């Protein structure tokens, strides 16, 4: 019978230590030896008829590796069935700890894996919350409407003269004694006075296509 012990490493990590008694180990190990004997061909013996002791002596390491590879997963699955009865369920592929074993001994191995952490659910409903609604003034509504108008406004050509708050597009040519420099088309909102009051005044009343001299 497999003996197992579950060790808690952290809130979500566990280590399962299992011990398989040598009686069970020897029975399964000999089963692996017989498999090797069935297809082993040794000088002086017919296939499958060589003495067990000779098979064990010649193929000791291969038999040991085959036994562990085949039976350790089986022992682990059996131990997991007992864990499931205790509501312990690994959520990832377990990792096998290093171990040392030789035929004739109990097999002791450890597996590390992760589980869902135990979370205590605190109160999450029926809370009392003080709600203080914000007072909305007429000025706040007007400002928001104005912002929406500016955000979603469509730009259309205007046939009449430019006025404050109009968005105009213009191209600047700068003159000095030696050369003329040009800039790409620029957009500007009249009335902001970003370039001075005179600049705004010179462009006010201008129409599309007009040429304005300003300094």
Structural class: alpha+beta
Q: What Rg do the Cα atoms give? A: 44 Å
Q: What's the SSE pattern?
A: EEHHHEEHEEEEH
Largest sheet: 4 strands, antiparallel
Cα distance, first to last residue? Answer: 102 Å
> How many structural domains?
2
By DSSP (H or I, 4+ residues per run), the number of helices equals 5
- Number of β-strand runs: 8
Classified by CATH, the class of the largest domain is Alpha Beta
As a percent range, the share of strand residues is: 15-25%
What is the CATH homologous superfamily assignment of the largest domain?
A: Trigger factor ribosome-binding domain
Query: So what's the overall shape?
Result: elongated
Report helical residue fraction: 25-40%
Report mean pLDDT, rounded to a whole number.
86
Residue windows where pLDDT falls under 50 for at least 5 positions: none
CATH architecture of the largest domain: 2-Layer Sandwich
Write the CATH fold name of the largest domain: Alpha-Beta Plaits
Lateral strand order in the biggest sheet: 1-2-4-3
Protein name: Trigger factor
Pfam families: Trigger_N
InterPro entries: PPIase_dom_sf (IPR046357), Trig_fac (IPR005215), Trigger_fac_C_sf (IPR037041), Trigger_fac_ribosome-bd_bac (IPR008881), Trigger_fac_ribosome-bd_sf (IPR036611)
Domain Trigger factor ribosome-binding bacterial: 3-148
């Amino acid at each position: 019978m497999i003996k197992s012990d579950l060790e808690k490493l952290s809130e979500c990590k566990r280590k399962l230590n299992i011990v398989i008694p040598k009686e069970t180990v020897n029975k399964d190990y000999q089963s692996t030896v017989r498999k090797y004997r069935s297809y082993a061909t040794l000088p002086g013996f017919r296939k499958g008829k060589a003495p067990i002791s000779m098979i064990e002596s010649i193929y000791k390491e291969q038999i040991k590796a085959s036994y562990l590879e085949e039976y350790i997963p089986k022992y682990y699955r059996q131990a997991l069935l007992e864990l499931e009865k205790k509501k312990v369920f690994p959520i990832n592929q377990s990792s096998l700890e290093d171990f040392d074993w030789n035929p004739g001994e109990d097999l002791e191995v450890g597996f590390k894996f992760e589980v869902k952490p135990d979370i205590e659910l605190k109160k999450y409903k029926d809370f009392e919350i003080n709600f203080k609604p914000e007072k909305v003034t007429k000025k706040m509504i007007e400002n928001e409407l104005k912002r929406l108008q500016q955000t979603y406004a469509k730009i259309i050509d205007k046939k009449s003269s430019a006025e404050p708050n109009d968005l105009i597009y213009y191209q600047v040519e700068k003159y000095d004694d030696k050369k003329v420099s040009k800039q790409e088309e620029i957009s500007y909102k009249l009335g902001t006075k970003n370039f001075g009051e005179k600049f705004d005044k010179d462009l006010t009343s201008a129409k599309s296509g007009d040429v304005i001299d300003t300094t």
